């Protein structure tokens, strides 16, 4: 029993309480408009990318000398979950993945530690290694993307315009950073003929030295006079390609201009950098990221306003296109959820008005906005934005928060019907139910503890569900004991029907059924247990799922060519895809990323790093139905047109990024053996009809030319391997020799051979190599050529070579079903493997298991809190056992609802089931408390159980019906549907069991017997 009666205090300080109501409403309205808007809740991508380059090294050398050394150091990283790396010739990329339990501060501290420790061991890396570099902004989301195409303008002219636009957009409030997409760096090529240089007797290194010496920036001193300081500047720096073309050399006793012996031209990086295309046209993109806690709706409006001004000033021929706009998605989502919220409010109010009457219904109608008005400021203080999870939580909380107000209002009505005064009736609920309601509220909140404290990315993603529900339920209790009694005293009137009038038909029917169940108590208990066991047996029939696909209209089209493919081949493939997409009536617009994956335009995107052989298109359909039609068309097109490529078409994911839904990781020390095992795994996977597009993240070696140098012959000629490699690199790829400072850009000057001398293996054999003596010799005089094979890249996990077998799923099959069906065959294969080799399930199933494990790890804390609260309230082990025995019975309704609706049991549905335990326990606690109150008045156990259950029938059923009907607006949604159906079915069944099974169990436990006169009365009824 709580010492101070808050309801009595509220009635004695009416003016103050009314003032508090007004302040709450005003504060709530202000906070509602100030709350940040976003699509998904912020969660930290606990991954850092560490990259290093060792130009000229082979894959094997890079892996052993760079990747291995870095990984050994990185394995000491605090909170490390696993390392994942891929090594290409001369390039190492390592993903440092931290455990899901790492907090935001721990993640930040860990990245600092990684930088420091890797910096300390940098000196142990081979000479010539560039880096390592670090990227811990892997999770930045660029929700607004503009693409700029041009007609009649050069790439440089377009880039100048886009750079100016970028500078203006950086001044817009809430913009944190802007990335440039698809911009190609300018290069000035100095292309020469090796034969011509040899004929003229010009030393290539002397030519390059002259370029570097003239263009260098050096201080020339400062003259200090009595009145001023005068700096000296020496001319000669290059400002254009013409300056380079005009430079003169002394060769053979005469002066030669560079343009006479070489072709000097301005072009773009060769091979190209990752490209960006919009609706089939080359483009430069601006990807805009919002600051943390910003309002995406306000940002979108501000960006559009500025872009309208910018577009008006753009010359004809430069066209901006809005490629991605998260503000539109969020506006639509918030609009839909606000509609759902209003529908839920309307449903709950309708239930209240119909069942309680106009005046009591009005109290519930006022309690809802009062509660929400207080919830919004608390959300603002806690920095919880309005996004997918928090909005859904508001609807779930809405169905729960009317419980206390209904209980208070019903108790007040009951007291008024007994002839009590308004003040006495309004304070009665606090005296009899306040602590039971508080205990029930805390138990309900405890049911959401696994949501709030699950140490995983999925738990972090859904944290605001726990936070918002907890805030709303606590606020609803205070509203029920402070505001509702005052409203009741003002609005309610004594019911016309007196307490001794004949009860209603539903009431009589329930009392008769309860009496029958209690008479056949062992049968009632047995049937309840049988239904529970049947639901457990039916549990495996429910399909499993991690997170569902998004209902956004985008499709991601991934295309991986053979891993030795050039970016030119990938660009050609992109153009073929563009031709297919052009004119399709189901498409609104699309954008393509060539040589890289899409930038993170929404938080759960599985971002792909740059690779020449990879492209990704983001195709925006006109609606979800068009998306499904387009999905089928693109699947067919890619299978027919790109049979040698790995292609994937998929809608956007919800929840933490996963990638291919079905994955098996094959790991072991020997790469050849790993490949053999992976092929066996792939054969097993491809044999199952639910899996399709089976592929590998790496597998096939590529071709290379090895230049075998006769070292003895080379030394006789005065050559070294370093000198030969330098000559080859200059001729084939080109060597940056200096830079032109052009406005805000630094333009590399690259010396290389002419095109015809760079692309032919035949001309490579006769390549003239300069000797120290000044003459030249052909390369084939001291070197031979042979073809060899090498893996273009190698993936490793925790320093062990790992090859991942990947697959998509066919039709409506779920990844969990595929993995479950393949499990026996995979286990049989694993038994035949040596101890150092292993096959591990990855993808959606692994991430789901990790997330569920993080939830289950917190269940003991949930149970401890629940049991503690219940024990404080009940102070009896038998009564505690009765409450606990009712809670799991909700699973009967959960299984039935999911089976009938066809919804899967996913991560969000599991959270709903856990939350359901608290909801059921709350009703059970209040009912047990009512039975004990009846017994305290001198009634026997049987009579007390029947009377208490009868008096609690209306508020418990009203709360349950309100909650179930209040879930209807979100039941059809993709994300919340499984949870809604789980709660609706579970709560409905559990409510019936609470009102029937619990009093029956109470009587069975405490040995209550029906009185003879009561038996006769019930028989007459």
The CATH H-level superfamily of one domain is Multidrug efflux transporter AcrB transmembrane domain
Major beta sheet summary: 9 strands, antiparallel
Q: Which blocks of ≥5 consecutive residues have pLDDT under 50?
A: 498-502, 1016-1021
Portion of residues within helices: 40-55%
Number of strands: 30
Q: The CATH topology of one domain, please?
A: Multidrug efflux transporter AcrB transmembrane fold
* Alpha-carbon distance between the two ends: 37 Å
Category from helices, strands and their pairing: alpha+beta
CATH architecture tag of one domain: Up-down Bundle
User: Count of DSSP helices?
Assistant: 34
Shape: elongated
Mean pLDDT: 84
Percent of sequence in beta strands? 15-25%
> What is Rg?
36 Å
CATH class wording of one domain:
Mainly Alpha
Overall description:
With 1021 residues, the chain is an alpha+beta fold. Among the domains are: 505-541 and 876-1016, Multidrug efflux transporter AcrB transmembrane domain (Multidrug efflux transporter AcrB transmembrane fold); 550-653, Alpha-Beta Plaits (2-Layer Sandwich), CATH 3.30.70. The chain is built from 34 helices and 30 strands. Helix 28 (843-874) packs parallel to helix 31 (907-936).
List the helices and strands and how they pair.
Elements (H helix, E strand, L loop, with lengths): L5 H7 L1 H21 L12 E7 L5 H16 L5 E9 L2 E8 L5 H17 L9 E6 L8 E7 L4 H15 L5 E7 L4 E7 L1 H7 L3 H12 L6 E3 L4 E3 L9 H5 L2 E4 L2 E4 H4 E7 L6 E4 L2 E10 L5 H18 L4 E8 H31 L1 H24 L6 H30 L4 H26 L1 H5 L3 H5 L1 H29 L13 H15 L1 H18 L15 E7 L6 H15 L5 E8 L19 E8 L2 H18 L4 E6 L10 E6 L3 H16 L4 E6 L5 E8 L1 H6 L4 H12 L2 E8 L2 E9 L1 H4 L2 H5 L2 E3 L5 E3 L4 E8 L2 E5 L2 E10 L5 H17 L6 E5 H32 L2 H10 L3 H12 L5 H30 L4 H26 L10 H30 L5 H9 L1
Helix pairs in contact: 1-14, 1-17, 2-12, 10-11, 11-12, 11-13, 11-32, 12-13, 12-17, 13-14, 13-17, 13-32, 14-17, 14-28, 14-31, 18-19, 18-32, 18-33, 19-30, 19-33, 22-27, 28-29, 28-31, 29-31, 29-33, 30-33, 31-32, 31-33, 32-33
């Amino acid at each position: 029993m709580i010492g101070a009666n808050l309801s009595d205090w509220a009635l004695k300080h009416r003016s103050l309480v009314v003032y508090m109501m007004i302040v709450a409403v005003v504060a709530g309205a202000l906070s509602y408009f100030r709350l940040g808007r976003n699509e998904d809740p912020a969660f930290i991508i606990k991954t850092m990318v560490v990259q290093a380059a060792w130009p000229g090294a082979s894959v094997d050398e890079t892996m052993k000398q760079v990747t291995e050394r870095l990984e050994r150091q990185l394995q000491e990283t605090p909170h490390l979950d696993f390392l994942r790396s891929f090594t290409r010739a001369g390039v190492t990329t390592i993903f440092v993945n931290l455990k899901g339990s790492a907090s935001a501060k721990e993640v930040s501290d860990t990245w600092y530690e990684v930088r420091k420790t890797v910096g300390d061991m940098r000196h142990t890396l081979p000479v010539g290694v560039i880096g390592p570099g670090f990227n811990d902004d892997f999770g930045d989301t660029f929700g607004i993307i503009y693409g700029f195409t041009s007609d009649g303008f050069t790439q440089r002219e377009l880039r100048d315009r886009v750079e100016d636009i970028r500078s203006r957009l950086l001044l817009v409030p809430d913009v944190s950073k802007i990335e440039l997409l698809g911009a190609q760096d300018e290069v000035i090529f100095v292309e020469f003929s090796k034969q011509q240089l040899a004929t003229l007797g010009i030393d290539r290194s002397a030519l390059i030295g002259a370029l570097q010496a003239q263009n260098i920036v050096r201080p020339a001193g400062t003259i200090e006079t009595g009145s001023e300081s005068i700096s000296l500047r020496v001319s000669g720096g290059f400002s254009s390609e013409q300056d380079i073309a005009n430079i003169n050399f002394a060769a053979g006793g005469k002066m030669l201009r560079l343009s006479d012996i070489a072709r000097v031209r301005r072009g773009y990086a060769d091979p190209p950098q990752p490209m960006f295309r919009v609706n089939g046209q080359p483009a430069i993109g601006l990807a805009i990221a919002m600051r943390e806690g910003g309002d995406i709706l306000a940002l979108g409006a501000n960006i559009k306003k500025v872009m309208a001004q910018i577009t008006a000033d753009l010359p004809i021929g430069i066209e901006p296109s809005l490629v991605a706009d998260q503000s539109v998605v969020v506006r639509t989502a918030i609009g839909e959820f606000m509609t759902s919220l209003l529908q839920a409010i309307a449903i709950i109010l309708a239930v209240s008005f119909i069942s309680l009457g106009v005046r009591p219904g009005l109290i519930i109608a006022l309690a809802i906005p009062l509660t929400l008005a207080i919830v919004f400021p608390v959300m603002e203080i806690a920095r919880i934005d309005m996004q997918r999870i928090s909005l859904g939580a508001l609807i779930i909380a809405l169905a729960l928060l009317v419980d206390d107000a209904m209980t208070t209002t019903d108790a007040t009505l009951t007291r008024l019907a007994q002839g009590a005064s308004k003040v006495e009736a309004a304070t009665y609920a606090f005296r009899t139910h306040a602590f039971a309601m508080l205990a029930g509220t805390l138990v309900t909140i405890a049911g959401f503890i696994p949501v709030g404290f699950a140490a995983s990315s999925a738990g972090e993603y859904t944290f605001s569900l726990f936070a918002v529900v907890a805030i709303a339920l606590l606020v609803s209790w205070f509203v029920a004991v402070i505001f509702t009694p005052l409203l009741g005293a003002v609005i309610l009137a004594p019911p016309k029907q007196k307490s001794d009038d004949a009860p209603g038909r539903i009431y009589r029917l329930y009392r008769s059924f309860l009496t029958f169940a209690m008479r056949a108590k062992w049968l009632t208990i047995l049937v309840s247990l049988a239904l529970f066991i049947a639901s457990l047996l039916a549990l495996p029939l429910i399909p499993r799922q991690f997170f569902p696909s998004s209902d956004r209209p985008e499709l991601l089209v991934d295309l991986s060519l053979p891993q030795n493919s050039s970016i030119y081949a990938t660009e050609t493939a992109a153009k073929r895809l563009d031709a297919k997409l052009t004119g399709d009536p189901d498409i609104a617009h699309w954008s393509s990323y060539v040589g890289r994956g899409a930038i993170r335009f929404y938080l759960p995107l599985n971002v792909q790093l740059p690779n020449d052989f990879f492209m990704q298109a983001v195709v925006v359909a006109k609606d979800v139905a068009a998306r499904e039609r387009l999905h089928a068309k693109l699947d067919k097109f890619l299978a027919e047109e790109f049979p040698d490529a790995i292609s994937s078409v998929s809608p956007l994911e919800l929840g933490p990024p996963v990638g291919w839904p079905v994955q098996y990781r094959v790991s072991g020390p020997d790469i050849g053996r790993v490949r053999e095992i992976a092929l066996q795994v792939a054969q097993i996977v491809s044999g199952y009809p639910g899996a399709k597009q089976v592929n590998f993240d790496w597998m096939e070696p590529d071709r290379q030319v090895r230049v075998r140098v006769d070292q003895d012959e080379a030394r006789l000629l005065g050559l070294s391997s370093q000198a030969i490699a330098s000559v080859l690199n200059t001729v084939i790829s080109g060597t940056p020799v200096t830079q032109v400072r052009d406005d805000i850009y630094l333009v590399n000057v690259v010396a290389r051979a002419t095109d015809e001398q760079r692309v032919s293996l035949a001309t490579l054999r006769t390549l003239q190599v300069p000797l120290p003596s000044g003459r030249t010799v052909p390369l084939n005089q001291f070197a031979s050529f042979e073809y060899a094979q090498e893996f273009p890249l190698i993936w490793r996990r925790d320093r062990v070579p790992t090859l991942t077998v990947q697959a998509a799923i066919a039709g409506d099959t779920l990844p969990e079903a595929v993995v479950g069906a393949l499990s026996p065959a995979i286990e049989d294969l694993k038994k035949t493997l040596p101890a150092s080799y292993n096959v591990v399930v990855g993808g959606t199933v692994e991430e789901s298991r990790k997330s569920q494990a993080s939830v289950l790890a917190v269940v003991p804390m949930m149970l401890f809190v629940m049991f503690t609260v219940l024990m404080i309230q009940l102070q009896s082990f038998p009564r505690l056992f009765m409450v606990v025995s009712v809670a799991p019975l909700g699973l009967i309704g959960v299984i039935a609802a999911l089976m009938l609706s066809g919804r899967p049991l996913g991560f969000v549905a599991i959270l709903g089931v856990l939350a359901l335990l608290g909801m059921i326990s709350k009703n059970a606690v209040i009912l047990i408390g009512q039975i004990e109150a009846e017994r305290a008045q001198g009634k026997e156990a049987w009579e007390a159980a029947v009377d208490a259950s009868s008096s609690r029938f209306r508020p418990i059923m009203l709360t349950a019906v309100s909650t179930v009907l209040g879930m209807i607006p979100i039941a059809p949604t993709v994300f919340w549907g499984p949870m809604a159906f789980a709660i609706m079915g579970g709560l409905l069944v559990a409510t019936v069991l609470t009102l029937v099974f619990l009093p029956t169990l109470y009587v069975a436990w405490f040995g209550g017997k029906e009185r003879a006169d009561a038996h006769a009365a019930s028989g007459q009824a």
